[in-house]
Structure formats: structure tokens, C-alpha cells
Amino acid sequence: MRRLLLAPLLLTAACGADVDPGLEGADVDELAFGLPAMDLTVSQLLPGQPARFTVTGLLPGEQARVYVSFTGRGQGPCVPAGSPCLGILPQVQEVLRMTANADGWASSVRAVPGGVQLGTRAWFQAAVIAGPQGANSDVSDVVPAVVDGLLCPLIFDPVCGIDGQTYGNSCEAGAAGWPVDYVGPC
Fold first, then answer.
1. How much is the CA Rg of the chain, to the nearest whole Å?
2. Spatial distance between the Cα atoms of 76 and 92, rounded to a whole number of angstroms
3. Do 125 and 68 share a structural domain?
4. pLDDT tens string for the chain (186 positions)?
5. Number of domains observed in the structure of the chain
6. Are 106 and 127 spatial neighbours (Cβ–Cβ below 8 Å)?
7. Could you tell me if 59 and 123 lie in one domain?
8. How many CB atoms lie within 10 A of CB 141?
9. Are 47 and 127 contained in the same domain?
10. What single DSSP character describes residue 73?
11. 71: burial class by Cβ within 10 Å (0-12, 13-18, 19+)?
């Protein structure tokens, strides 16, 4: 939904002309050509260790919020009222807020509490709150995670993360909380 306000600006810039006011209610997919969907990546969760949260598909300068539920998927709260609702069940907690860089992604680290038991299940979701009363807000898909001590396989199949670092394989990039930019070394 947040792309609806941007689409007329893209059309104006691309065409160099005024935008027809009748386009204001048009379908977002028809207008927001080429804009990626918001995506959340969560690194491996280990008690007492830092976890990385990365959100891609943002507009430069947008603020993404990451929420967690230890209850599961389902109809969650609408923050604020009138905006798209979260797909995670209450009790929902805000984990962090971060602002997108010029490339449209944001990343931050937050420590997993040391007292969290191995095997604890968590569901994460990112949200961008935009527009009057949140009318142009958007949410990512729900990302399930388990607090575990599992390690990635020792298979060398290098990938380049969006952070510009080479990882031994896609599992290692994901465990570090970075989406893969492309297969092969950076």
C-alpha cells in the first residue's frame, strides 16, 4: 500500500507531465512497476548472542519496525488502526526500528536474551507505517524462527550477501542475517 503515493511521482518523473488525478485510486501493482516487495531476513537465534534483522524492498529513508510474537501466526494487531494488520498473534512486541539506506534496505543487530530456552519458537514480521493514519502502511511476510544451536553445513558454495561480503553458502549468509545478492563470490 505504501507504494501508492510513490507511483504518481514515478509516472510524473518518467513522463515529465502532470499525473491524471484519476489515477489516485488505481491498483498498486499496475502503478508500482518494478518496486520490490518488502522482505525480512532474521539471522540464526542463539541465547545471549546478537541476531541480525535485515529488511529489503524499502524506499530510501523509510522506517521499518520489526515485531515478534511467541504465540504464532494469525490475525494480529493493526498498528495503527486502519493500517494493514500484522500476521502474528498477540502478545506482539516491537523488537527494533531502523531506517532504510539509499539502496532501500536496513539492517540492525539485537541481542537474544540469555535466558531464552533452546527450542523456543518465534514469529517475526516487519512493518512500515506511512501515510495519514497509516493508510499507506505495508507489512512483510511472517518469518518463523527457532532459538537453536544448529550450525550450517560445511558445503562450500559461495554467495555474495547484500552487505558485499562473501559467505561460504546461502545458509551462512542467512545465519548472519544477510539476504543473498547473487551466487558466487563478491
1. 18
2. 8
3. yes
4. 454 444 444 444 444 444 444 444 444 444 444 567 899 999 999 899 999 999 999 999 999 999 999 999 999 998 777 778 999 999 999 999 999 999 999 999 999 998 989 899 999 999 998 877 777 889 999 999 999 877 788 889 999 999 999 999 998 898 888 999 999 999
5. 3
6. no
7. yes
8. 12
9. yes
10. B
11. middle
CB 69 within 8 A of CB 122: yes
Class of residue 88 by CB neighbours under 10 A (exposed 0-12, middle 13-18, buried 19+): buried
Cell of 51: 541476531
Range of the domain at 122: 37-149
Query: Distance of CA 13 to CAs 2, 17, 58, 153, Å?
Result: 18, 8, 19, 47
Q: Which residue has the cell 516487495?
A: 37
Which of 39, 46, 38 is CA-nearest to residue 145?
A: 46
CATH number of the domain at 166, please: 3.30.60.30
Place of cell 546461502: 170
